[in-house]
Design goal:
Blueprint (H helix, E strand, L loop, with lengths): L1 E6 L2 H8 L2 H8 L4 E6 L12 E2 L9 E2 L1 H17 L3 H13 L18 E10 L2 H7 L4 E6 L7 H7 L2 E4 L9 H12 L9 H5 L18 E2 L2 E2 L9 H19 L1 H4 L6 H13 L5
Helix pairs in contact: 1-7, 3-6
The structure holds adenine (ADE).
The site of adenine has 11 residues, from strand 5.
Length: 279
């Protein structure tokens, strides 16, 4: 998968992403991460990319033209190595997914590539969205700074508006890095152990069960005996139950969304009764 990050601070995103698991996946060729400096597309004397907002107000706004040119350059490069027919299909499927998508502007090359604008006004990023975006071959992430970006260019190039949570950051770079990390670990080959992406928190809307490693006893606390039993069915059952308990205790909002079997529901009811949480 290829990420293309449009930003005024390319070194920030590259330094943050070229380490550890993601860095290794880049070196191994499972991912590519390109950071494009929007300032390189500011064709004015001072290479400025921001200006005052019409109508007044605090701060500066990123201007439309450098953002547009940076996006066009990336889009053209992507399309140059992609078959045109495939692209048309991609565009159709992309148009069907994703909330907050701009109207398709047929005939424009750049409309064909999924382009995310990181903004607190976007749909809140979650595991489901990461899974959806991990299916793309190319993803363009647009990072705003200052007070945001001129609305007109957003209307032309953005397909998805995404927020990483209900708080305001100084720019879209950290959110873009969060998204690249969460999406990358779902790309085949990035995690050595494919199972670890499958059985983890948010799988089935349940949080992951507690895990233990050596030694068998630490600070007087023993590893739950079932994990030492070698009985795989019992271990799976225990882990599933622990996931349910953990979700109930830490993220009860998720519990409504997960599907428990009748047997699990019965077990959970009994567990609650035992804890005196139901009478
Ligand atoms: N830019 C500033 N704050 C943000 C947020 N919470 N999510 C995404 N992009 C942002």
């Amino acid at each position: 998968m290829n990420f293309h990050i449009l930003t005024l601070f390319p070194e920030m995103v590259l330094n943050g992403l070229n380490t550890s698991i993601i860095g290794r996946a880049v070196n191994a060729g499972f991912l590519s991460i390109e950071a494009v400096n929007i300032r390189d597309y500011a064709f004015n004397k001072h290479q400025s990319v921001d200006d005052y907002p019409y109508g007044g107000g605090a701060g500066m706004l990123m201007q439309a033209e450098p953002v547009y040119l940076a996006h066009e350059a990336v889009a053209e490069k992507i399309l140059a190595r992609t078959d045109t027919a495939d692209c048309r299909e991609d565009q159709e499927s992309a148009a069907a997914v994703g909330a907050g998508m701009a109207t398709a502007n047929e005939g424009k090359l750049s409309r064909r590539i999924r382009t995310v604008y990181l903004s607190p006004q976007g749909r809140v990023f979650d595991q489901k969205m990461a899974e959806d975006l991990a299916k793309e071959d190319d993803l363009i992430l647009l990072c705003g700074h200052y007070e945001g970006i001129d609305e007109r260019v957003l209307e032309e190039i953005v397909t998805d508006y995404v927020s990483i949570g209900d708080y305001v950051l100084t720019g879209g770079e950290l959110p873009a890095m969060v998204m690249v990390d969460a999406i990358s670990r779902l790309v085949p080959g990035v995690l050595h152990n494919d199972v670890s992406a499958e059985f983890e928190s948010f799988q089935d809307n349940l949080l992951e069960y507690p895990q233990y490693s050596r030694p068998e006893e630490w600070h007087g606390k023993k590893v739950p005996p079932v994990l030492l039993s070698g009985h795989h069915a019992n271990i799976e059952k225990w882990r599933r139950e622990q996931s349910i308990i953990r979700t109930y205790e830490r993220r009860p909002d998720l519990l409504d969304k997960c599907e428990l079997t009748e047997k699990e529901k019965k077990w959970f009811r009994e567990w609650l009764e035992e804890k005196n949480e139901i009478h």
